[in-house]
Specification:
By secondary structure, the protein is mainly α. It has a single domain, classed as Up-down Bundle (Growth Hormone, Chain: A). Strand 1 and strand 2 form a beta hairpin. Helix 10 packs antiparallel against helix 14, helix 10 runs parallel beside helix 15 and helix 12 packs across helix 14. The radius of gyration is 25 Å and the shape is globular.
């Protein structure tokens, strides 16, 4: 007689989810590092359109887990839905790797990513919650380490995909580098799926009720069919800015309505936890407005006003591509994750751990500090390009804030929301995050650089403007990034031909010198566009900190009521004020 196989340990189960999350985030952040640049530099989008389009795509990517969480809880099972989402994500990145400049094809590819992320994201987080269910201190530590999986994957991909893009473009031309980089994102998902296939038995005992039953083919077909419809709906939303705005605001109203409905119709003993989750979710919305700047305004700032050279005490260390500066966020997360997890665990063991609400307040303070560092960029600039170290320390402060807020967001849902609605409420949390991703894109447009050089220098009294216009009037109709590619000779003549200009190297020496001086003047023009936005975002971070501190007494009360309910449930005693 065969002995039943004992369930895998919590640690082994956690490692399985950790690894597939790492590879999924490898794909996502590899794509995110380049997508705004791709729209601006390859497809010719204006800053406004690129930032709003990516804001809308990020919103859809974060909104979709609300449905995916429900599918995992009630239809296909948490494990199966997560796995299906990973497969669809690989297909989405494979579509993005197809060479071409079709805007509609890009939007459909992003629609596939939206559907795949919706099925994957909430269910991966819900599996972690199920592994450590019932142990609040372990849940906080587990989600902090789980959050590090995100950052291991994103660090590697954010360093790798820009380098691959630049290498392939330089050696093979035809802008194939963009699509080679997106193909690497697809490869990451394939590795993640292969790894999961090897370790899947460690999760055999973790999941929702449908996971314990055979696959319902009719339900699977319905999910896939509706997924195809969702792809085209997503592409339509991305195509039209007004539609995107209406969708996001309606999603916000729906999430708020759902929270209010659940709070009012749940047992009185559960209301304190749900109310606390609502307050912290609203704070998370504000946090992600700041977070979205990394892939929008900060990303374009790195492209246009940050010196790519890393120097220390006069010694040159290395150069980074502008898109690679985003990797400082996950690098700092990895550096800080283990110390924070240890602090949480030790403080919890001594009964001195800060509440989640207090950690949120501290997180906002760190985010404010980060943006004040960015806003001081001009003070450390040479020829109006700031030191790369500004990005290092700005990302350091912001990333600590992210660990304290976003890193505990999933743990907050796991702690305060009843288990029977865990998957759905994780999805609702991601919807709230998605709303703020779009709002972050809207905020980023406040630092949009005008479409053409002529518009950028429209009010400039600098004599170089008139000299350039007299010698090479076609330059004035170029956009900033194409002009700089032309001046550097990095376009292999394609941009010069498109703008009806000769190759830069063939110009007379005095004309080359004039254009290089003019380029420096453009750095001076764009720097304040970005630093002004960063300063006001720092001020907004201070305001959010003060608000978070102001609601701490109320949050302590809600947390105490929630804890009393849990104690009563564990001991079988009635909770004061319950309807039992």
């Amino acid at each position: 007689m065969n002995k039943p196989i004992a369930p895998a340990s919590q640690t082994r189960s956690f490692v399985t989810v950790f690894l597939i999350e790492m590879w999924e985030r490898f794909g996502y952040y590899g794509m995110q590092a380049l997508i705004v640049y791709f729209m601006v530099q390859r497809l010719g989008f204006a800053d406004n359109r690129a930032q709003l389009t990516w804001g809308a795509a990020a919103a859809l990517i974060y909104v979709s887990p609300a449905i995916g969480g429900w599918i995992g809880d009630k239809v296909l099972g948490t494990r199966r839905t997560m796995l299906l989402g990973a497969v669809i994500l690989a297909v989405g990145y494979a579509f993005m790797s197809v060479p071409g400049q079709s805007v509609w094809f890009l939007f459909c590819s992003l629609g596939i990513v939206v559907v795949g992320n919706g099925l994957f994201k909430a269910n991966a987080g819900n599996l972690v919650r199920k592994i450590y269910e019932g142990d609040d201190s372990k849940i906080d530590a587990a989600f902090t380490i789980y959050y590090m999986a995100v950052n291991i994957g994103s660090t590697i991909s954010m360093l790798l995909t820009p380098a691959i893009k630049d290498y392939v473009n330089a050696h093979y031309g035809n802008e194939l580098g963009w699509h080679a980089a997106f193909a690497v994102c697809c490869f990451g998902l394939i590795l993640g799926l292969f790894n999961f296939a090897i370790m899947r038995q460690t999760l055999a005992h973790i999941g929702s009720d449908p996971d314990e039953k055979p696959v319902n083919v009719a339900k699977l077909a319905a999910v896939l069919g509706l997924g195809v419809v969702a792809v085209f709906i997503s592409a339509f939303i991305l195509q039209y800015e007004t539609v995107a705005r209406i969708f996001v605001y309606c999603a916000g109203a729906v999430v708020l309505g759902i929270f209010i409905y659940l709070i009012s119709n749940s047992d009185k003993s559960e209301r304190a936890g749900l109310a606390a989750a609502l307050v912290l979710t609203i704070q998370t919305v504000f946090f992600f407005i700041f977070y979205q700047q990394m892939s929008t305004s900060l990303n374009l700032f790195a492209l246009r006003n940050v010196n790519p050279s890393f120097d220390l005490f006069g010694l040159h260390l290395w150069n980074w591509a502008p898109a690679q500066f985003q990797s400082f966020n996950p690098i700092w997360i990895m550096i800080l994750s283990f110390p924070l997890a240890m602090i949480y665990t030790r403080a919890g063991a001594k009964g001195k751990d800060l509440s989640v609400a207090a950690k949120f307040a501290l997180g906002f303070a760190m985010v404010a500090l980060g943006f004040f560092i960015y806003s001081a960029a001009n003070q450390f600039a040479v020829d109006h390009r700031t030191s790369s170290w500004i990005m290092v320390w700005g990302y350091g402060a912001s990333s600590l804030g992210e660990l304290l807020v976003s890193g505990l967001g999933l743990a907050m849902i796991a702690r305060y929301v009843p288990a029977r609605m865990g998957g759905f409420m994780m999805g609702a949390y991601f919807v709230a995050s998605g709303i703020s991703q779009y709002l972050g894109g809207v905020v980023a447009t406040l630092a949009s650089v005008p479409d053409t050089i002529k518009t950028i220098v429209a009010n400039s009294q600098n004599p170089l403007v008139a000299q350039v216009q007299a010698k090479l009037p076609a330059v004035m109709s170029m956009n900033l990034d194409n002009f700089r590619k032309w001046v550097s000779g990095g376009d292999k003549g394609a941009i010069a031909q498109q703008a009806h200009l000769p190759a830069f190297s063939s110009l007379p020496a005095d004309t080359q010198h004039l254009l290089q001086q003019f380029n420096q003047q453009l750095y001076a023009t764009t720097m304040p566009i970005y630093t002004n936005l960063f300063f006001w975002l720092g001020v907004a971070g201070v305001v959010c900190t003060l608000i978070a501190l102001a609601v701490l007494p109320m949050m302590r009360k809600l947390d105490a009521q929630h804890h009393a309910h849990n104690v009563a449930t564990d001991t079988g005693l009635p909770t004061i004020g319950s309807e039992e």
